[in-house]
Amino acid sequence: MAIRNILKDDDPTLRKNSREVTRFDARLHQLLDDMKETMEDADGAGLAAPQVGVLRRVAVVATQDGIAELINPEIIETEGEQEGLEGCLSFPGLYGIVKRPAKVTVRALDRHGEEFTLTGEGIVARAFCHEIDHLDGIVFTERAERILTPEELEELIGSRDDEADGSDRT
Ligand code: ZN
């Protein structure tokens, strides 16, 4: 495994559409392993392949049951709404208020090409949406109702350090 370089803010690759995965081979498995290691190293809650410069529909998301590997993921059901703070490993130090569904079910393939569905709530639901946006070339700053000022961020971290310490960046 290897830690890959995470592309940052104005890199044009982050605004491109990723292509579907059609080969479930050693190269894909290497990518998934590297993405998981890269995400953990950066203390993130999710990571999408375009963030490491690979325009393929692959994402990893931290869940209660470990890191989920999502290949060609699609949102098939949503429920409710949540409004909250969102960050991104490609935008260090930037947080915005983004509206997302409260509960999200995705259909995806695993590393062997087997289909499965997975439901997440709260931060996991948020990460599913955030990562799938990445695969469509959409970054969270485009979804944000507004971006927090440095002063607001400092205030928030002071009062809610359990939630705003950067561990929710995807
Ligand atoms: Zn992101």
Summarize the structure.
The chain is α+β, with helices and mostly antiparallel strands. The protein is built from 4 helices and 8 strands, in the order αβββββββααβα.
Distance between the termini: 20 Å
Structural class: alpha+beta
Mean pLDDT: 93
| Uncertain residue segments | none
Describe this structure in words.
This protein has 170 residues and is an alpha+beta fold. The strands form two sheets. It has a five-stranded antiparallel sheet with strand order 1-2-3-6-7, with helices on both faces. The mean pLDDT is 93. Strand 4 and strand 5 form a beta hairpin. It has helices spanning 26-41, 123-135, 140-143, 150-159; strands spanning 46-48, 58-63, 66-79, 82-87, 95-100, 103-109, 115-121, 146-147. 25% of the residues lie in helices and 30% in strands. It has four helices and eight strands, in the order H-E-E-E-E-E-E-E-H-H-E-H. Residues 88-90, 130, 134, 170 line the site of zinc ion (ZN).
